[in-house]
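If you are new to this repository, start here. Below is one unmodified record pulled from the training split, so you can see the exact layout before writing a loader.
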Amino acid sequence: MLNNIQALRAFAALNVVFFHIIGASISYNQGVDFFTFLTEWGANGVDIFFVISGFIMVYIQDKKSRTALSFLYNRIVRIAPIYWLLTILVVSIYFVLPSVFRDLKPSLDHFLSSVTFTSQALGYGLPTLYVGWTLEYEMFFYVLFSLGLIFKSKAKSFLTPVLILFVVASLGLTQLMALEFVLGMICAKIYLSERYNHLGLPSFIIGTIILLISIFYKIDIDRFFVYGIPSFFIVFGLINMKQIKNKLLIYLGNASYSIYLIQVFTIPAFYKFSSKFLPSLQTDLVAVLSLIFTTIVGCVLYSLVEKKLASVISNATKKKYKNTIVV
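And here is the target side for that same chain:
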């Protein structure tokens, strides 16, 4: 079990959450003071997630070969149920209390594009659950990866999604950050070859230094280079280093998806509460409390809803997909 990856997932999720918290603090006139230097930096959590996804797909497929259909089913069971549930919850809240939303104006077309992970491709912009824009990239990658699984040759299975992503990116049909999935795939191939696994620590140090430099020096180039490349080095470093045994970090990694999704609700709710009842509370403390609140609610959502929902769906169809695992 690659526990270090779980810890990195936790870091990535909390980074993105804090990025959105800083944005919310400004919107609610409670802008942070000390944490202003992190205003944009937390966005790198998305890039880390993409590299991890590319790595996990190749790594898991190598350990347990699956058909294209089985792979897609596995991915849908992993990400869709809780995402659909929270998307429906957002729309339901809107129709009951529309005043709590500033920008949301749901329509049937927008809703359908959101739950089918096509809102950006169809020109609707962000999906109903706005953080779902990253899931649309994930689903696009899953479809391409499954196309590769049609071929029995491992080389063709690997090269098919890689080449399609390069063509799509070069034509400007998607952002360069989509290539971060390719970085993850390459990372897995190198790891499985066992040729350079002794370079784990220096790789991690290099990636961390580059990522930290981006806090203080705003480099005007695509995030693929600023965040994606160092994310590759960090992932490669962590998978080749001694694996942690800290149960809390591992649990937070498992709960990272729920934490990532629930922020859509918890951050504005917390800031509405704090601006009304705790207006004099130090703004940086409000931001930290919002992060803690989001993490706790996300963990509860994971334990009580996400895990059970995925388990019920998986068990209901396991006879049809016997070789499916949820990771």
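Two things worth knowing about this chain: Residues 3-317 form one domain. The chain is about 70% helix and 0% strand.
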